[in-house]
Each structure stands twice: as C-alpha cells, then as structure tokens.
Amino acid sequence: MRRHEATIGGDGAAAPWKEQQLASHRWPEAQEGAPAFPPSTMRRLVYSAANAALVVFIMTVPPMVVLYGARSSSPAVWISSANVGGRGSSSDESILLLHRPAAAHDKLLGGLLADGFDEGSCHSRYQSAMYRRNNAGKEPSPHLVSRLRRHEELQRRCGPGTAAYSNAVESLRSGKSGGIGSPPQTECRYLVSISYRGLGNRMLAAASAFLYAMLTDRVLLVDPSNEMGELFCEPFPGTTWLLPPGFPLTNFTSFSVDTTESYGNMLKNKVITTDAAAGDVPTPHQQLPAFAYIHLDHDYTFHDKFFFCDDDQSVLRNVPWLVMRTDSYIVPGLFLVTGFQAELDSLFPETDAVFHHLARYLFHPNNHIWGLVTRYYDAYLATARQRVGVQVRVFGARQESPKVLEQITACAHMENLLPDVITTGEPAATTRRRLKPKAVLVTSLTSWYYEKLKGMYWERATATGEAVGVHQPSHEEYQRFGSGSHDAKACAEIYLLSLSDALVTSGWSTFGYVAQGLAGLTPRVMYKPANESSAVPDPPCRRDVSMEPCFLTPPYNNCRMKRSAHSGKVVAHVKNCHDVPWGLKLVRRVE
User: Domain holding 412: CATH number?
Assistant: First the structure.
C-alpha cells in the first residue's frame, strides 16, 4: 500500500487525535500483553482506499501498526511490522495482521430488538451483546425485523388490557365462533402456550409457539404458572406476553392427549373434517369451536400430527383461540407446511439460525439472574484466553459415570479443545507458556465431573504447558421441577454456557440445545450411550450439522395421502439429527 503524509479533507477527513485518548488505548483482552501507546513512539499516517479513510499509527516500540477508522476513536485493525515473506521489519509494506477487535456491540442485535425499553428494568436485553466474543453472529433478515415490529404492534393492539382482548375472552366464555367461511367473532386471534417440564423444554416450546403465532398473526400468551414471568423480562414493548388471571378455560394446564377438544380428537371424531381425499371437504357452514387444544407433546397421536398439514392449517386459521402443549422444538415441523414455506424463506434466509434469532429476541433474564451471570463471568471467565463449555446430562439413575467422563475427555482432546496432560514429571521450563489460561465451564446436576476435570488439570501438567481452569457454578444433584431457585440457577448456567467460544454438549438435552442456539455455536455433541454398560461411543462426539435444536418427536405423515411418511426427506434443509436419528433438525440451506 502507498503512504500518504497528508490527512484527507472533506467527508473523508480523519478525526482529530487526542494524545490522552491515544495513551489510554490498550490491546484487546484476547491478546497477550497490554502495552500502552505513548504518543512519542508513533507516527501518524492516513491511508485512503476504496473511499474509506484510515488513520494509521506506526508504533516504533514495540513494532506494530494501529489503524483507526476516519470517524472512529476505536482501533479498526491491529498490525505488526514483523517479517513477512522474508522482508525486513523496517519496510512499511512488510506488515502482518495480528488482530481485528470485535466491532462495538450492537445492543439491538441488527434490529432484532426494539429500541425504547427501560434499560434499568431489564439489564440483559441490551447488555448481552457486550459479553459475547462470538460477535460474528447471524444477522436477522430485513423481513424478520419488519415482521417483529408488526407483531409487536399486534400484541399491543390485541393483548391483555385492551378492548379487543376483553371481547375475545367474552366470546370464548360464551363459546361463540364461526364457520370456516365466516370471519371469527373477534377481531383478534390468540395462541396460549402451556409451560411445563424443565427450563430447556419451556424455552423451546415458547420459541416454537412464538414463531407459529407470528406466521398466523396470533397474539402469543404464555402460561405464567411455571415461572416464565419470574425468569424473563417481557419481550414485547408496551404489553405483556403472560396470560392474565381469569382465563375462562380454568383447567387448560391439565389438557392432555385425551382432551375432547384436542384438534386430533375432533378430527378423529369427525367434529372437524378436512380430509379432501376422503370426500370430507370443509364447507362454509361447518361450525367450528370457540377454541381448539393443540396437543404436540411426545405422546401425540396420528391425528394430532396433522397439525403440520396445509388443509388442517386452513381450518385452524378460523378458530379464534388455540391452546398448545409441547415439550419440544416443533419449528422443523412448521417448515414442512407448504403454506408457511415462502414466508419462512423470507424470514430466515439462513435456515440454520432460526432459534438463534428467536431466542435472542424472546429470552432476556431478569436482573437477578443476569447478576448471577455477570458476576460469575467477571470472576472466573472474563480473562480466559478461550472458554470451553461442557454441558453434561446423564439420562439414567446413575449420574456419576466414569464412562461419561472418559467420553468428555476423549471428545475434548480429539477436537483440540483441551490439552492432554503429562502422566509423569513436569514439562521443561522452555515449554511452559505464559498464556492466559483456558477456562472450562462445566454444567451438570452433580459436581463429580467438575471435580474430576479440575483434579486432572491441577495434579498434572499439560503437554502444551498451558494452564486450564475448571469451573462449575452450581450442582443441584437432581432436577427440581417447580423450584424458582433451581430454575434461576439453570437459566444463569444456560446463559453462561452461551458465552463460550466452543461447546461440548450431551445429545438429547434441551438444556444444551438452548445454550448452543443462544451462543450461535455449532457444538460438538456427545452421543448418548445405548445403556449404562455400553462402551464409550467411537467417535466420542461429532460436530453437529447446525446450531439448531432437534425436534425430538417429529411427525411422520403424508398430508395428502393421510398416512405415514419420512418427514426428513420432504424439505432439503430439514434433516435427521445426529444425536436422535429419528428427530428433525434445520440445517443450512444449499442454494
């Protein structure tokens, strides 16, 4: 590149340099060392290329170059004038890029989040981006940003506390609805999401319900009985997503596969007809119920699964109230509905980042939980050279398994995430590396895996000479459903895992699914052993096909023929999961 000794005028003029500002800038945290920049040790140059001006400071001690954007006081590129290609370090052209600091955090996540919330009431909403090194995250599409703003307006116009909501509740209480060809008796339509099971299940279910609500222009209301309102801030500005007291369906949290008003049972009993192939063509005069219960839990039936078919969606569009129960991530199933595909393609051009966007939009831990996250991060993780998250979930009575521990270490070593240890002696002084340590964050119901890993790296030196610190925030010993304290710690640990640079997760675990989606990281997933006596799987883990969660109990229906079919072969970017072979997962679309 050519050197220009003069600054650039006009719109490309370099920002004036302030010596005190210069002296205060230091290496980014990820780099070793932190030299200050005394003004006496540098020359100021300006480069101009492709209409972009850069202010350049060439350091003489130590030799490096710092490039600043013309309108920025933050370093754009860090360069060392070390030898390149055998040329001497005195040449202005012999420069080597060392580090490009992450861009200043975008608190709105590329427009994903709405501006204008009271930041003091929910610190995590606008602060979370500051804690992620993985800032090369997926950008939301303009269409997704537009639809989110539109849906927020719908939630405000039709949500709790409005005349529209009061009218809809009265219509539900009276049982009023309309025919398929008639408009609903209310101006707004609603989806109530039942919250139950573990926190990971609840978050996946809420994200799934939200996407379905957005696709069908329904107001999303989340059942507050399982602490969703006590864990997370409100996602929608100017309204609530929590179902208020006084809901007419007083027993809705007890709805099950046997509920008479379930959509599957109404199909089975011919209360609703949609089977055009059998001659049951819906008519404008068919009377629809005031509500339908959508049972998409793990035990859902053949008829329940027709929820994922176009004819059935056409009928459900005219039911004012839907109540949905699921304990899984049903989004891959929505991509099988032909009528949704064009909209989903516009919303999510990157089909492997759907949950990444939905989760970062919806789930903002409250201030107490965010305090748990940030205090732990600052104390144990902030200064680490690399953060490796290890999420351990053992399915079975025996939580402390030497084979699972062997699987963890084998995976971490195979993937070069953690160094091997020396079995005897100490490394030579010349091999000891004065680097910031790696930090391993372990999450598990038991402390046994943490203790074993910590002991391994304390009692023995690493072959590379680097230090490894092992940390675990909590160990609750067993899953405590309905415990606010347990859920708060679980939520904090999910978010701490999501701040990792690399993740090792346990197959089948919804806890790990949520963490990897929030992080925007494709994890190394450990296969679930067939049983407790099985050998450690070989290989012990595998890089997953995407960061998306797995739909553990997908439909296997041919909608047109009303019979079973292989759903993993319908849409190119919906594939079977690595950890659950019959499950479905969204992968990157291949153009």
Answer: 3.40.50.11350
